[in-house]
Automatic annotation (TrEMBL):
Pfam families: DoxX. This is DoxX family membrane protein. It is found in: Membrane. One of its GO terms (cellular component) is membrane. The keyword rRNA processing does not apply. The keyword Membrane applies. It is a multi-pass membrane protein. Coiled coil: none annotated. Keywords: Membrane, Transmembrane, Transmembrane helix. The chain crosses the membrane at residues 12-29, 49-69, 113-131.
Amino acid sequence: MTAFDRRDATATLILRLGLSWFMFLWAAHKIITPAQYQGLARHFDGLEIALWQVYLVAAVQIVLCTAMALGALRPVSYGALALMHAYTVSRRWEGFLDPFAVNGNGFPVNRNQVIDLAVMAAFVALVLLIHRDRFSLGGWMSHRMGARWWQ
């Protein structure tokens, strides 16, 4: 592995761990405060969801975050979390049109949407650089065993 390859592998490792941690925190919050997520589903999607559904989504996300942190089943784990985040971004697009809006107390009301967009860009970069993600279980398996399905 060249110095260039090590630098790319390190960059994708940092990106992968940061994104998996970000998504894990959102999944953990679904377990800690499930009623908040029921309210978000009602507000943004017009759906009434049961607590068990919130917990199920959180569990699936935690499994995917763990796989992503390890770099296992990369197309599945990276892709699924990227699609979940893209769904979140698509539901909140109005905030992108007014990123500097503040409420009566001077609080920036659309800053989470701006953060969401940056995270989406990071997901796109990680998916595009998946072949450079050598410091991962999938990268190690494909290098060691030639097992392309781990990629």
